[in-house]
Design brief:
The protein contains nine helices and 13 strands. About 40% of the residues are buried. Strands 2-1-3-10-4 form a five-stranded mixed sheet, with helices on both faces. A five-stranded mixed sheet has the order 7-6-8-5-9. The chain is globular and about 60 Å long. Helix 1 (about 10-25) links the parallel strand 1 and strand 2. It folds into three domains: about 1-95 and about 200-220, 3-Layer(aba) Sandwich (D-Maltodextrin-Binding Protein, domain 2), CATH 3.40.190.10; about 105-185, Periplasmic binding protein-like II (D-Maltodextrin-Binding Protein, domain 2), CATH 3.40.190.10; about 220-290, Double Stranded RNA Binding Domain (2-Layer Sandwich), CATH 3.30.160. With about 300 residues, the protein is of the alpha/beta class. It has helices at about 10-25, 40-45, 60-70, 125-135, 150-155, 170-175, 210-215, 220-235, 280-295, and strands at about 1-5, 30-35, 75-80, 90-95, 105-110, 120, 140, 165, 180-185, 200-205, 245-250, 255-265, 270-280.
Length: about 300
C-alpha cells in the first residue's frame, strides 16, 4: 500500500514528514510512504523581506490544494500553522506527538546576559511581540521571517541585535542552536505558546477510510485533546495563526486539562485567563474561556 505524503521543503518540515513516515512504517510495515516536497506561499514570501507577519494558512493552504486535487494522499503540518476551518472534504486525522511547546529567546554568547532598554529583538510573531513587550516594554521589535536556520544566521550577522524569539520545538528537532548562540526557554505562564505549537498534525481526505484507520494508530489522544482546547479558544476568539494570541493546554495525570491563554485587549493590553476541565470537554472549555474573556 503506497501513500504520497506532502510536505514543505524546509529542513524542519522534512524532518517532521520523515518522522511521520517512520511512525507509519513502524505501525504498519506494509505501508510505503513517498515524500513529496511542495513550495507554499509562506516559503516563497519569506524570501521577500521581514516586514510582514505570517498570514493565516500560508504554510498549509498549498498542501491542502494538493490533497483536494488528489495529487497527494496526506500532508504533515506544524499544528500551529493549520487554520481552525479546513477545506471541505479534509480532516485532521492524527496528532502523533508534541515536542516542547515553549518559546525560547536566543542571543549571542557575547551579548548582555539580560535584555536592556532599547535592545533589539527579532520576531515575526505578533503574539511574541505582545507578550515580550509586556515584560520588557523598552524593547525594539524587528521583523524576521524564514526557517529556523535562516533566523539563527540572521542573529549571528546582525551584531546590533540582542536576540531573536523562536519555538523550542523547531530548535530541538534540528539539533540545537547554531554555534556561538545561547538559548533560554521561556516560562509558558508568561510567554504563552501559540495554539498547537510543537505538535504535528496529519491531514487527509475524509473519504479515505483505510488511510484514516492507519493514521488513527499513530494518533496521541492526549495531544489531540490539548490541541482541541487550544484551537477551540482560537476559533471562538476569532483569528488565525498570526493573531496576537496564546493558548496552551496541558494534560495532567488525573485526566484533567489545564488551559492557559493570553490575548491582546482592545487597547493593546494583555488579557489572560485559565480553565480546567476533563479531556472530553476540551472543545467546550476552549470556547467558553474565550466567551468569558470577551464578556459574552
Amino acid at each position: 500500500m503506497r501513500y504520497r505524503l506532502g510536505t514543505r521543503g524546509s529542513r524542519l518540515a522534512l524532518w517532521q514528514a520523515n518522522r511521520v513516515a517512520s511512525l507509519l512504517r513502524k505501525t504498519e510495515p506494509s505501508v510505503d510512504v513517498a515524500i513529496i516536497e511542495i513550495t507554499t506561499s509562506g516559503d516563497a514570501r519569506s524570501e521577500y523581506g521581514d516586514e510582514l507577519p505570517e498570514g493565516v494558512g500560508e504554510f498549509s493552504s498549498e498542501l491542502e490544494k494538493e490533497l483536494v486535487a488528489g495529487r497527494i494522499d496526506l500532508a504533515v503540518h506544524s499544528a500551529k500553522d493549520v487554520p481552525t476551518c479546513l477545506p471541505s472534504g479534509l480532516v485532521l486525522a492524527a496528532f502523533p506527538e508534541r515536542a516542547d511547546a515553549r518559546d525560547a529567546v536566543l542571543r549571542r554568547k557575547d551579548a548582555e546576559p539580560t535584555p536592556y532598554v532599547g535592545c533589539r529583538i527579532g520576531t515575526g510573531s505578533p503574539r511574541r511581540s505582545l507578550l515580550w513587550r509586556e515584560r520588557w516594554p523598552g524593547t525594539e521589535i524587528l521583523g524576521i521571517r524564514g526557517n529556523v536556520d535562516r533566523r539563527m544566521a540572521r542573529l549571528v550577522s546582525e551584531k546590533d541585535w540582542w536576540g531573536i524569539l523562536l519555538a523550542c520545538a523547531g530548535i530541538d528537532r534540528l539539533g540545537g542552536v547554531t554555534e556561538g548562540l545561547v538559548m533560554e526557554r521561556l516560562d509558558p505562564e508568561w510567554m504563552v505558546p501559540a495554539p498547537g505549537q510543537g505538535a504535528l498534525a496529519v491531514e487527509c481526505r475524509e473519504r479515505d477510510h483505510a488511510l484514516l484507520e492507519i493514521l488513527n494508530t499513530i494518533n496521541d489522544v492526549g495531544v489531540q485533546s490539548c490541541i482541541t482546547a487550544e484551537k477551540s479558544f482560537l476559533k471562538r476568539w476569532g483569528g488565525g495563526c498570526s493573531e496576537s494570541l496564546g493558548a496552551y493546554a496541558q494534560l495532567g495525570s488525573d485526566g484533567f486539562l489545564a488551559l492557559a491563554v493570553a490575548v491582546a485587549g482592545k487597547t493593546g493590553q494583555v488579557l489572560r485567563g485559565k480553565s480546567v476541565a476533563t479531556a472530553g470537554e476540551a472543545e467546550r472549555m476552549g470556547r467558553e474561556l474565550a466567551e468569558k474573556i470577551k464578556g459574552e
